[in-house]
Design goal:
Number of domains: 1
Protein name: Lipid II flippase FtsW
Strand content: under 5%
Number of helices: 14
Number of strands: 3
Largest sheet: 3 strands, antiparallel
Helix content: 55-70%
Length: 371
């Protein structure tokens, strides 16, 4: 038995490792394909986004390897510190260190280096909530000791992130926290009440928005062809890309919509370019890879050696699932645009490192699990 346990500690979840590395390589290829004309237009170098994405992928690989070897139980000791550090970073966005792009202040910049505290907030929330609720399994059953503090945390994150403004990330972080609460044993009545209050609150924010920006995004989702050159333009170009791909696609690198028709095709709407170049079959294959990752994450959570490991793995899996569903829903015009990236595939260094590091944590938890 000792020999078997030792052998288990030397390896992690092989399927998860292969799928993640495959998605990252696929993402680098698709970022290059989708960004080629944008890169020429922005910097004159067609390989600009490719070179940057490769650097971030290598850094992400380092983060993944480190987290796979670093004992996940140590995170519990520093959970409050990690939470406070991220809240401070979120507050620093509203100082001269904050970098504004496209009317949103989501980055902290020091020279050429920038970080996104909103992305870090996802993993900080996962670690803290997992630690807090795993100390005593009965905590979540108490409204004052379990539910109320977590709702307060949701409010703190939501308030700081929505000011950027970044509604999609704020909703994602709150969704992760509520998801972990549910896994920990949140009463269904409380869950229904929280979701109801959240829905009412978001609706109120949309309807009372002074500039009407959020309401316009909502109406553009309901009928993007009502304003084809304005709010509905990006969604329409996305649908045209998906429709042009057909069953097998037009071929890798042969997309028409990436030739400056679809704005920022290497970011939030990269799934549309995948659909155009690789077709319906390519999209299905990609979705199947994400389903495998969610399955392996759920398996790791169920077999974790302790409550903290279970909640930590569950939170990471919930984060992955939320972002995949939201991104694909936006690209297919099933919900309003949110600005959520497609994990491992979309261009974006902070998000790529976050997800690869998170997969490393999952691998570490799997290494500590009994066979």
């Amino acid at each position: 038995m000792a020999g078997k346990k030792k052998s288990r500690m030397k390896s992690g979840d092989f399927v998860l490792t292969i799928v993640v590395l495959g998605l990252v390589v696929f993402g680098v290829i698709m970022v290059f394909s989708s960004s080629y004309y944008n890169a020429i237009n922005d910097s004159g170098d067609p390989y600009d986004y490719l070179k940057k994405d490769i650097v971030w992928a290598m850094l992400g690989l380092g983060a993944m390897m480190f987290c796979a070897l670093f004992d996940y139980r140590i995170y519990a000791k520093f959970a409050p510190t990690i939470l406070i550090a991220d809240l401070v970073l979120l507050a620093l966005l509203f100082t001269p260190l904050g970098v504004t792009r496209n009317y949103a202040t989501r980055w902290i910049g020091i020279g050429e280096f920038t970080i996104m505290p909103g992305e870090i907030a996802k993993i900080a929330a996962i670690i803290f909530v997992s630690w807090y609720l795993s100390k005593d399994p009965k905590t979540i059953r108490s409204f004052t000791k379990g539910v109320l503090p977590m709702l307060g945390l949701c409010g703190a994150f939501f308030g700081l992130i929505i000011l950027q403004p970044n509604l999609s990330t704020a909703i994602t972080v709150c969704g992760i926290i509520i998801g972990i609460m549910f896994v920990a044993g949140l009463n269904v009545m409380y869950l229904g009440g929280i979701l109801g209050i959240g829905a009412v609150g978001i609706t109120f924010m949309i309807l009372t928005d002074e500039g009407g920006y959020r309401l316009k995004r909502l109406t553009s989702f309901l009928d993007p062809f009502q304003d084809p050159l304005g709010d509905g333009y990006q969604v329409i170009q996305s649908l045209l890309a998906l429709g042009s791909g057909g069953l097998f696609g037009v071929g890798l690198g042969k997309s028409i919509q990436k030739t400056l028709y679809l704005p920022e095709p290497q970011n939030d709407f990269i799934f549309a370019i995948i659909g155009e170049e690789l077709g319906y079959i390519g999209c299905l294959a990609l979705i199947a890879c994400y389903i495998i990752l969610i399955w392996r994450g759920t398996h790791i959570a169920l077999n974790a050696p302790d409550m903290f490991g279970t909640l930590l793995a569950s939170g990471i899996t919930i984060m992955l699932a939320i972002q995949v569903v939201l991104n694909i829903a936006v690209v297919t015009s099933s919900m309003p645009p949110t600005g959520i990236t497609l994990p491992f595939v979309s261009y974006g260094g902070n998000a790529l490192m976050l997800f690869m590091g998170s997969m490393g944590i999952l691998l570490n938890i799997s290494r500590h699990s009994a066979r």
